[in-house]
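Margin note: ligand = coproporphyrinogen III.
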Amino acid sequence: MTPAQAFPATNAQIAKMTGRARLLAAANRRPVDVTPVWFMRQAGRCLPEYRALRQTHDFMEMATTPELAVEATLMPVERLGVDGAVLFADIMLPLSGMGVPFRIQPGVGPVIDRPVRSLEAVERLRVLSVEEATPYVLDAVRLLRHELGDRAALLGFAGAPFTLACYLVEGRPTREYPLTKALMLGQPENWDRLMDVLTEVTIRYLRGQIEAGADVVQLFDSWLGLLSPSQYERCVLPYTKRIFAALGGLAPTIHFSTGTGHLLPLIASANPSMVSVDWRVPLDVAWGQIGDRGIQGNLDPTTLLAPPEVVAAETMDVLRRAGGRPGHIFNLGHGILPQTDPDQLKRIVELIHSSPN
Ligand code: CP3
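Resulting structure:
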């Protein structure tokens, strides 16, 4: 028997994949030993070590100080053993470079005191280089790429133009984003100008992160579920398409949204490498709708407040629906709730990593 026959290229051998290799293989729709996993909002309030760090540093200080952002990014990698590290940052950070001051109000979210509602305000928005606008983000990415090695892939991210526009126009989180939709539907030329600027800033921001060492980038279009298919197709899709086209070939891309079961084929037509889906559509059904690309998801984050055996059953259901097909990254359908017990997350990672594909 030759050594190759004694140790065939089966699970035993492939199981040596590093977290980074595993996540990148899935993002490129190649086979993996076990399904890669990370969690949205894994670097945050559900971790006691994060809350301890927040006692002495406010959120913006943490996000704009590379050493602190690195520390917060690494916390879930060390505690949970996830295959992906999501950069500790926020979708709002590029706005300061555009000349729009904002703050993150605890328990509320992003607040902008002077919202962008007129053509004049849109025309005042600046487009700087990433080095000028958010140098601390690039420094954090560079440090992290070095610190992580092959333990985990580094995921960079940005807010998508529509979701950023929601905050810019309203000035704070709302339920329906009515002023934003009124601008979108009622003043199409001003909308196009605003979306053009946000698209350009987003392309620069994500390219900068990839050049600094991000392995994969995720575009968060959190409020997309508010739109009808025709509104999405006319007012948002062209810009999203432009972003993925501009990043094509540089790194795998993930499109994120929630409540968009009615938009999935259109979202896929924007051409991301993968589509992140929430729990409202079963994973296998969603995969059928996005066609020939990868999928991320889709456990309901509220499941994690239920007993461990419920979490295990729901996790296995997601894996069963993925069916071992190449191109699945396990994640939640939206961010972890702050009251989640991190041990629940750890058990999910262990369960997935002990379930051969
Ligand atoms: O693990 C991670 O995901 C950390 C990196 C990250 C943060 N925000 C840190 C953060 C990411 C990927 C985001 C994305 C983000 N930020 C989105 C898109 C994802 C989604 O949930 O739909 C949105 C819409 C925002 C805007 C924003 N920033 C919100 C709604 C909040 C929460 C406000 C609150 O206090 O409930 C923030 C603040 C924020 N961003 C926190 C973290 C860890 C909490 C800050 C704190 O410590 O108080």
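The pocket of coproporphyrinogen III is lined by residues 40-45, 54, 59, 86, 88-91, 104, 106-107, 109-110, 157, 220, 222, 335 (CB under 6 Å).
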